[in-house]
Amino acid sequence: MRAKCITILTFVLSFQLDVQAQFTVNDNGFFLAPETTLTVSGLSITPSGPFSFSNNEISYATKPVSGNPNESIKRVYAMGNPIAFKGNILISYYENELNMNSENLLQLTKAGLNGEFLVPTNKSVVNSQENFVSEDVDWTNIQYLTLTNSGNILPVTLIDFEALVRENEIVLAWSTSHESNSDFFEVQHSANGKEWQTIGRVAAVQQSNEVNGYAYVHKSPSAGSNFYRLRIVDQDGTFAFSRIRNATWKSQLSVVFFPNPVSDWLSIELEGSSSVRSIAIVNAKGQSVYHKSNSAIGHNSENRIDFKNFPSGIYTIIVMLKDGSLSTGKISKK
């Protein structure tokens, strides 16, 4: 017996040509008791424990997900926001939605926000008499759900993606379980997690049913936090982003500012100053009020800056290294 109680809810709202059903829940939420089934236009979810579905929606489209050698069936469900779910998921289908997929080989497959589909693992149960496929799952990050044959390969699936600190560099390592028409991985870096720049590109194997490992070495990380993501590009130009990874790199340069607050002379002690390109001071308005290049900086010594004529306020000390990374600190003038 699959459920103690079955609740069937179907809301039809056509707002796009390929959207055929929608179930919307506001902030108040929609609670499902364990072993209670919610069915929305052919998609049934039966949680094994208490499940709350709030500020979200379920819709489905008839446009299949591209794949190799076959696409998915012509029934793809989308969540308004990704969910985590443990229990049974069942998808009913019509035979005219099979899209050249064999009924006996149908498997449940899901993707997260980045559109990377989990390759089917032959764990689904197919009922070709009643036209449905079901599977007991324990999944996180569910944004899309559909059915495809167990031998099909949907877009690149990342198994893992790591950012590891190694001496003066950060090593990025990732692997894929399957690839179909993949072209390359674009490695992107950010110092704040918002503004991104491309720092490298790694060619993909294009077609594979095996696990493939990749790596990229960032030789000039920023002092402090470094954020990384992959832009996964297919041969047809479509792309998806990986999850963001963060690694903290501590510069070998030691910088000490004193006294703080300062009234007349500010001392800056640098250890490893041969790697310093420049020292700059910026006021609260973002205006540069002091700058000294490497040629004028004493190696492994103390540099003194006259602050007597500086107005009272907060200042930022910026030490730029030759590799382009920065070390900063704030001081106040009495």
The total count of strands amounts to 27
Main β sheet profile: 9 strands, mixed
- Report, as a whole number of angstroms, the end-to-end distance: 76 Å
- The count of helical stretches stands at 0
**Uncertain parts:** 1-17
Large-scale geometry: elongated
Percent strand equals over 45%
- The pLDDT mean sits at 79
Query: By helix and strand content, what is the structural category?
Result: mainly beta
Proportion of helical residues: under 10%
Secondary-structure element series: EEEEEEEEEEEEEEEEEEEEEEEEEEE
Overall radius of gyration: 28 Å
InterPro entries: Secre_tail
Pfam family, one: Por_Secre_tail
Protein name: T9SS type A sorting domain-containing protein
Keywords: Signal
Could you give a quick summary of the protein structure above?
This protein is mostly beta strands. The chain has strands spanning 5-8, 19-25, 30-32, 36-40, 43-47, 51-53, 56-61, 76-92, 106-111, 125-127, 132-149, 157-166, 169-180, 182-190, 197-203, 207-208, 212-218, 224-234, 239-241, 245-249, 254-258, 265-271, 276-282, 288-293, 302-306, 313-321, 326-333. It comes from Dyadobacter fanqingshengii.
